[in-house]
C-alpha cells in the first residue's frame, strides 16, 4: 500500500527525516538527488539511525559506526548482522510516497 509521507521540498539533500507509516518507524533519506526509505532502528542493537548521517549512498549508524547501503540495506564489510530493511519510494511532483505491506520490504 502506498502512503504519502512528506513533501520533497520539506527536506534538503543529505537530510534524514523520521516518519511513521502503517505503525512502522521509518526514515526518509535524501542523498544524491534520490529519496530512500529505510527502517529507523539499526538491526544490530536498535540504535536510532535518525541520529546518524548519510553520504555517498550510505547511512552511518551513530552507535557502532557500521554503514548501510541506502539502495538495498547491505551492511558494510566486517559486520555479521542482517541488512537494513528498505522500502520502495515514489516521488510524484512534490509528494514523497512510500510502500509498506506484505511485499514492500526489501
TrEMBL record:
<keyword id="KW-0001">2Fe-2S</keyword>
<keyword id="KW-0479">Metal-binding</keyword>
<comment type="similarity">
    <text>Belongs to the bacterial ring-hydroxylating dioxygenase ferredoxin component family.</text>
</comment>
<dbReference type="GO" id="GO:0046872">
    <property type="term" value="F:metal ion binding"/>
</dbReference>
<keyword id="KW-0408">Iron</keyword>
<dbReference type="InterPro" id="IPR036922">
    <property type="entry name" value="Rieske_2Fe-2S_sf"/>
</dbReference>
<keyword id="KW-0411">Iron-sulfur</keyword>
<dbReference type="GO" id="GO:0051537">
    <property type="term" value="F:2 iron, 2 sulfur cluster binding"/>
</dbReference>
<protein>
    <submittedName>
        <fullName>Rieske (2Fe-2S) protein</fullName>
    </submittedName>
</protein>
<dbReference type="Pfam" id="PF00355">
    <property type="entry name" value="Rieske"/>
</dbReference>
<feature type="domain" description="Rieske">
    <location>
        <begin position="3"/>
        <end position="98"/>
    </location>
</feature>
<dbReference type="InterPro" id="IPR017941">
    <property type="entry name" value="Rieske_2Fe-2S"/>
</dbReference>
